[in-house]
Amino acid sequence: MKQKPFRTKLIPQSDEQSAAKVLAVLQNHGVVALPTDTVYGIAGLVSSSIAIRQLYAIKDRNAMKAIPVLISDVRQIEQLSDNFSAPAQLLAERFWPGALTILLSKRPDLPSELSAHATVGIRMPAHAWLRDILRQCGPLAATSANLSGGANPITAQEVQTQLDGRLECIVDGGVCRGGIPSTVVDCSDEQNLKIVRQGAITAHQIAQVLKNNFSLEI
Q: In the predicted model, what is the mean pLDDT of the chain?
């Protein structure tokens, strides 16, 4: 997909119209850069193939790398997966909202562009403003707001340095307090759990929650 140039706007999160402006872009199948509790991300509606294709184009991302999804609360999981497994529920209860992405089996009616695999990564961010957006528009396909291989941005200015002209707007929410990407745990097979990426939450913390009830590959 050829990426068309934008005059990227910088919107302060403190602007009382910031949420309305973001929702307008998203509902028009657009992509925005947003602060999260970990690093800045770029996001589009999970139901929009157009927006998801833009995410790949903006980042120059390999199509075989799936796009994770952000949710406001656990009720939104049913829009993404039919199998919220027991170990996934344990981890969600302990670490959500927070820096944990859980892989679950993917609903077949999700856009094919979201993932070339049978799973979907789901996370509930510990960021009140962002979760309010998610409550209003539904789950968002979201990935770090950098060019593939680039540094993970923790400020709006760092996003602008890498992605200026590639997306419609960037919400400036200050410095992301986490600064470290989420840990990713594959819970799609209850008998074969696996830490896919170690991030803000340690393997020891994951193992402590699961104890000896489930087999965990690190």
A: 95
Q: Is 218 helix (H, G, I), strand (E, B) or coil?
A: coil
For residue 199, the model assigns a pLDDT of 95
Backbone angles phi, psi at 195, to 5 degrees: -85, 110
Check whether domain 9-217 has CATH 3.40.1090.10, yes or no: no
Res 1 pLDDT > 50: no
- DSSP state at residue 103: E
Q: What is the pTM of this model?
A: 0.95
Q: Is-cis flag, bond preceding 97, omega within 30?
A: yes
DSSP E strand stretches across 18-110: 32-34, 41-45, 69-70, 100-105
Q: In what order do the strands lie in the sheet with 169-172?
A: 9-12, 169-172, 32-34, 41-45, 140-144, 69-70, 119-123, 100-105, 183-186, 193-197, 216-217
